[in-house]
Amino acid sequence: MTAGSFKAAMIQMRSGLAPAANIDAAVRMIGEAKSAGADYVLTPEMTNIMEVKRERLFATIVEEDADTSLATLRELARKLEIYLHIGSLAIKFSPDKAANRSFLIDPKGDIAARYDKIHMFDVDLGNGESYRESNSYRPGEQAVLCYLPWGRLGLTICYDLRFPALYRALAEAGATMLTIPSAFTQQTGEAHWHVLIRARAIENGCFVFAAAQGGKHENGRETFGHSLIVDPWGRILAEGGSEPGVVMAEIDLAEVAKARARIPSLQHGRRFEIVEPMAEPTHLHVVRGAE
């Protein structure tokens, strides 16, 4: 491997209602990834629990300092000597709000970075499918850029994917890799998952790592799966299906410079004003070309 290359692994899960069982499954697959040579491992959003009912959620989750899931995963990162990125855990923030929080853990088991999901998934999808993440979760307020030995990593979570300005800001601040651990619904995943992930990679000239939840969960929710590793040119290097498992690829960060040299859009960005006319036009004059 060159100085700017490493092996990345996405852990695809089907988290249920019991954190202990979910973490056991994550630990097993993280171990498989390490055995296959992974240097950096990402788990999906809601690694510790998939629960939409507020009462049951708050009866289960605890504050960060008391969270045994986090403690277990920190010890695992130390034992395996890897960068372990927990896509997110549901963490009690206050008596009535939780945080959807991502943790980057270094090979010593220390927490190198935290990121709280900024954009809350408050949507009505039709066919009876409706979500109000803000009822239980407090949105984050800060974008987070952190350092790996190979390059800079921009942290985001799931619904953040639909807000391209966040990724542009991370890329302009120096990110060469973007992370989007997710629990995309089956409905929205089928429609938008691949095109949005590839778009974030292409428009920013970054690698994108997207570990996902997949399949029919214990709480009845169905998620799309298809964990992805995408290169800066938009090529899919590795993809999962709908079942839990490990998705891996070799990452060569020299590809970032190559993609950005071919399409230097980060250098061409311009700030501009939006000007609104004083009044609506009273008529429309159409000029047609010669026929």
Task: Describe the protein.
With 291 residues, the chain is of the alpha/beta class. It has a single domain, classed as Nitrilase/N-carbamoyl-D-aminoacid amidohydrolase (4-Layer Sandwich), CATH 3.60.110.10. The chain is built from seven helices and 16 strands. Helices cover 27% and strands 29% of the residues. The termini are far apart. Helix 1 runs parallel beside helix 3. A six-stranded mixed sheet has the order 5-4-3-2-1-16. A six-stranded mixed sheet has the order 8-9-10-11-14-15, covered by helices on one side. Strands 6-7 form a two-stranded antiparallel sheet. The mean pLDDT is 93.
Please supply descriptive tags for the structure shown above.
single chain; 291 residues; alpha/beta; Nitrilase/N-carbamoyl-D-aminoacid amidohydrolase; six-stranded mixed β-sheet; 7 helices; 16 strands; 27% helix
Summarize the structure.
The chain has 7 helices and 16 strands.
Shape from CA axes?
globular
Number of domains: 1
Q: Quick one: CATH superfamily? A: Carbon-nitrogen hydrolase
CATH architecture: 4-Layer Sandwich
- CA-CA gap between termini: 61 Å
The largest β sheet comes out as: 6 strands, mixed
Strand order of the largest sheet: 5-4-3-2-1-16
| Poorly predicted regions | none
What is the topological layout?
Elements: E1 5-12, H1 19-35, E2 40-42, H2 54-60, H3 68-80, E3 83-94, E4 97-105, E5 111-116, E6 122-126, E7 129-132, E8 144-148, E9 151-155, H4 164-172, E10 177-179, H5 186-204, E11 207-210, E12 214-216, E13 222-224, E14 228-230, E15 236-239, E16 245-252, H6 254-262, H7 265-268
Parallel strand pairs: 1-2, 2-3, 9-10, 10-11
Antiparallel strand pairs: 1-16, 3-4, 4-5, 6-7, 8-9, 11-14, 12-13, 14-15
Helix pairs in contact: 1-3
